Amino acid sequence: xxxxxxxxxxxxxxxxxxxxxxxxxxxxxxxxxxxxxxxxxxxxxxxxxxxxxxxxxxxxxxxxxxxxxxxxxxxxxxxxxxxxxxxxxxxxxxxxxxxxxxxxxxxxxxxxxxxxxxxxxxxxxxxxxxxxxxxxxxxxxxxxxxxxxxxxxxxxxxxxxxxxxxxxxxxxxxxxxxxxxxxxxxxxxxxxxxxxxxxxxxxxxxxxxxxxxxxxxxxxxxxxxxxxxxxxxxxxxxxxxxxxxxxxxxxxxxxxxxxxxxxxxxxxxxxxxxxxxxxxxxxxxxxxxxxxxxxxxxxxxxxxxxxxxxxxxxxxxxxxxxxxxxxxxxxxxxxxxxxxxxxxxxxxxxxxxxxxxxxxxxxxxxxxxxxxxxxxxxxxxxxxxxxxxxxxxxxxxxxxxxxxxxxxxxxxxxx
Length: 415
Ligand code: HAM
Hints:
By secondary structure, this protein is an alpha+beta fold. The protein is built from 15 helices and 16 strands. The strands form 3 sheets. Strands 1-5-6-11-10-9-7-8 form an 8-stranded mixed sheet, sandwiched between helices. Strands 13-12-14-15-16 form a 5-stranded mixed sheet, sandwiched between helices. The two termini are about 45 Å apart. Histidyl-adenosine monophosphate binds near residues 80, 82, 118, 127 and 305.
């Protein structure tokens, strides 16, 4: 027997109401903030992610699904959405549109991670990207979009962590200070951090190993090394978030795992941690479009993990509206009545009434049992007698009361 690949899940019918709920809230919030939907392919040139997410990051070095297709092209399953949206922005000349261009997506992402609760090898994200402005008001608006999205789903007890990691001017100075600090404490840090010290210094602050915590906690802070424009940008952002009434805390150790980030980074986390880690994250990526061959173009966005959001909805016992199901069951007694049942079910559906039609040759009793187990409220029964008289029996499945009605009146009665 085959099973779904490790780290992937089937989203079964009983789960779908949660998915529709989240997707509808996402579409609504995007309409409020002026984002238009974009769908990019699940596969991209692997080079796109090497270039943007960055070689030396866990996602590219350890987690990306890459393969050669039959034509010899090196492709990757998208591990994230930002690079694809920027590729599409350039490919379709969106730099000629009024800026910022605001796009959103709901897509599957693929990462070869160690599966655990809330961490999968295929997960789904709702992402927003606002491309074409470096105004801190746009960062604030992007964060507000994410925050209002969680509120619109009634999710509470969230924490917004914020940081600024500077730009290509001020970051090198900060990274030097970070190296000095870690070199001084070289004997106390883990093997991975020794590798990060050479390969990806920003990620030193991300280390979860207990032995590295004192070193990371006392490390220099990026905000103390920001150049004047970055410092002003970060001040403005915090002021705007205040205006919008969004609570946040500056977390000096928040760096996030992508090379493309500049200035603002943020994450939304369940208060008190929780097993699943962050519910969403994002930031500014002012150098990415240029890195991909475009003109210098500032941008900011986020990606929110829908699988984890749904775990939160369940944990917080938030009701989502059930999906509409057919309310009518058409049953029959005898072969001649079956023909009429087929026609009747079709005609009700053409009148916009959802119908489950009895299939096979079960007894009438068994058909009604099926209607009951589907929690259907009305059954329409056709037998030989009704056939001759041009009537049907309409049965209320809850009270078991029945009435005989002319077949022609049925759509109107059921509506
Ligand atoms: P990310 O933080 O890697 O950012 O992913 C965004 C969110 O996706 C995470 O906060 C988490 O909720 C969810 N997520 C990530 N990995 C998994 C996983 N293995 N299983 C379940 N959920 C997961 C990005 O991908 C950036 N592209 C976000 C962004 C957009 N930054 C700017 N624009």
